[in-house]
Structures are given as structure tokens and as C-alpha cells.
Design a protein that fits this description.
The protein contains one helix and 16 strands. The protein has 226 residues and is mainly beta. The protein has an eight-stranded antiparallel barrel with strand order 1-2-3-6-7-10-11-12. The protein has a four-stranded antiparallel β-sheet with strand order 4-5-8-9, with no helix packed on it. The protein has a four-stranded antiparallel β-sheet with strand order 14-13-15-16, with no helix packed on it. It is globular. It starts with a helix and ends with a strand.
């Protein structure tokens, strides 16, 4: 009888540990890895960064980064960054999931090649759903199914991280141009210079961004006044 009780306790503790390991840590975490996108076949883009922020209610907000696929059948495809919010955790399947088809989201899509050339913002209102799975070692697998605009087929991207870090670890400094986003996915500038050399004071005023951290091209920067 005692052995059965001990075995049950060990089983419950083991299950609790697994459940804890499969949820996102508090605060904001960035995951670096490779995204594989299936169009007519698989195309990959390495060293992309997905950023996850855990909300007080246990849901997560996910910033999907901008990335580019070279030499596809229809040419070069550039997929813009956007944010899916309030992704809830499914205790049965041990993963986060959200159908965001009705969330009113849009993405910037550019295709340049011999077959077609497009460049614009397209609503994701036909199909959009995403799942986030955190492994026992803390790495993320993110599967995103989306169909922007009037695209006749579904696109599936599968991201697998090989490293993760707290977003407070800011160590790069560079000039960049293009769209910048807050951690909540709000566009804050079209063309700006960002600088992240002051890692001691994340509240340093920025050049039009407001205070703190922005995401550009899937990477984080601590902005400062010029």
C-alpha cells in the first residue's frame, strides 16, 4: 500500500514537472532557430527570432518575424512581421493554440519573380491559426497556417528553435530601416535608426519610438535618442 502511494506521488510530481516545462516562462523570451515554409514544397530560412510575451492571465502574445525565402518556384518571397495575441494553453494537448482568422490581422507580403510581382498589405481573414509547443528543454516549435488576401492556397510555416534567451539580454547595435514594432506588435516607425548599446537603461527615450525595446526584422533593439 505504501509503495502504491509513493508511486502515485512520484507520478503526480513527474506530471507536474512536465506540465511546467511545457508552458512559457514569465516575461518575454526570444527563440532563435529555423523556419521551414511549405508552399509548393519546403523552403527554409535560418536564424530567425520569434518573440513570446506571457500575459498575466497565462495567455501569450507572439511576434512572428519578417523573413525572406529565396529561389522559390514563384520567385523571392518576403513575409512581413505581425503579432498574434492572447494565445491560450490547452492542458490536454500541452500546447498553445489560437484561431486568429477573425482577429482582423494583416501582413505585408512581397513576391518578386518571373511569374508574379506583388507588394502590399493583405488581410488574414480566410484562414489563420497557430500552435506553440514548448519542449521539456525549453525550446519552441511554432506551426502557423495562414492564407493572406485572395491567395488560393494555404501556407504553412514551421519554426523550430535551437536557443532561447530573456529579452533583457540586448547586445547588438546597428542602423536599420523598415518597419519597427513594439513587443505588442504595434507599428511605430517606417524608417528609423535604432541603437542598443545602452543595455543598462531600457527606459532611455528613443527617436520617435517611445521608451524601451522595438522589434525590427525579427530582432530586438533598445532605442535611444539620436
Amino acid at each position: 500500500m505504501i509503495k502504491k502511494i509513493l508511486f502515485s506521488l512520484l507520478f503526480l510530481l513527474s506530471a507536474a514537472n512536465i506540465s511546467k516545462a511545457q508552458t512559457v516562462a514569465d516575461g518575454t523570451t526570444e527563440y532563435t532557430g529555423e523556419v521551414v515554409v511549405h508552399v509548393d514544397k519546403n523552403y527554409s530560412c535560418p536564424n530567425v527570432i520569434y518573440t513570446i510575451t506571457k500575459n498575466n492571465d497565462g495567455t501569450i502574445d507572439l511576434v512572428l518575424p519578417e523573413f525572406t525565402l529565396e529561389k522559390t518556384t514563384i520567385g523571392t518571397i518576403s513575409v512581413g512581421s505581425y503579432t498574434v495575441k492572447n494565445i491560450s494553453f490547452n492542458n490536454t494537448e500541452k500546447k498553445y493554440f489560437r484561431d486568429y482568422t477573425s482577429d482582423g490581422l494583416s501582413m505585408h507580403l512581397t513576391v518578386s519573380g518571373a511569374i508574379m510581382n506583388i507588394d502590399g498589405d493583405y488581410a488574414i481573414e480566410k484562414t489563420g491559426n497557430i500552435s506553440v509547443t514548448i519542449s521539456n528543454d525549453g525550446q519552441a516549435t511554432i506551426v502557423n497556417n495562414f492564407q493572406p488576401g485572395k491567395m488560393p492556397f494555404l501556407i504553412t510555416s514551421t519554426f523550430t528553435s535551437n536557443s532561447s534567451s530573456d529579452i533583457q539580454n540586448i547586445s547588438t547595435s546597428r542602423n536599420n530601416s523598415g518597419k519597427a514594432y513594439t513587443l505588442s506588435g504595434i507599428t511605430v516607425s517606417q524608417n528609423s535608426s535604432v541603437d542598443s548599446d545602452n543595455t543598462e537603461n531600457p527606459s532611455t527615450p528613443s527617436n520617435g519610438f517611445g521608451n524601451g525595446i522595438v522589434i525590427m526584422n525579427g530582432k530586438k533593439f533598445l532605442t535611444k535618442k539620436r
